[in-house]
Amino acid sequence: MNHIKIILVLILLVNVVRIKAQDSDCPCNTEKEKIESYENYLVGKAFINRYPAKNIQFFNNWLKGDVFLTDGSIIRGELLRYSGRTDELLWMRNSDYQVATVIREQVSRFVLLDEMGQVYATFVKVKHKNLQHSENNDMYLQLLADGKVNLYKKYEVLENKSDGQLYTNTFYYIEKDGKFERFKPGRWTLYRLFDQDKETIKHIVHSNHIVVRKEPGLIKAISEFNNQSSGSSK
User: Fold this and answer.
1) Taking all residues of the chain, what is their mean pLDDT, rounded to a whole number?
2) Concatenated DSSP letters for 180-229?
3) Biggest alpha carbon–alpha carbon distance for the chain
4) pTM for the full model?
5) CB-based contacts of 93: which residues, under 8 Å, 6+ apart?
């Protein structure tokens, strides 16, 4: 009788293991399903587009790009898209065109390339609290200028609760001397942010007749400052 009991217990254990194995390999299309790339090391969760007809939620159409991982490796030539609504990197797997949200802990930055293979945009994961997504302690920011001073832009997409429409917000961040600050572009704001280097940035803006209220002028002013700083440090 004891032998029969032991055999029954073993049969039950085997069945439980089989059920668990089936669950883990389930081909379900849930948001928690893991999607892996067998030709590289990208891993993501299945992306569910809750606004399929609203491309405003995305920074770009699908573009080839490179993903720089936190372990120092680089995954090149993947189809990538940035979602401003979710602040996530999306990836379309080549083998079956499934779309996934790349696990953000895996990513340090990603670069989007245009049809000619030139850099279209660079996004960096910055360790700074995300006001739009408080569950994250970091956020993806578009890198506009880098050097002694880094200039970033946040492409944010929000939903109007009254009518369900999506709209965009754009914020700028500056990183200088270990300080990270959000700001609204303007001449006097920029001078304040440059603190001890205020006279240098003022000279750059005035001598080049730069309008820093507009993004191209802001990028030009900070890039020129970085160029001068790099030259003087040699």
Assistant:
1) 81
2) EEEE---HHHHHHHHGGGHHHHHHHHHHTT--TTSHHHHHHHHHHHHHHH
3) 97
4) 0.79
5) 35, 37, 99, 100
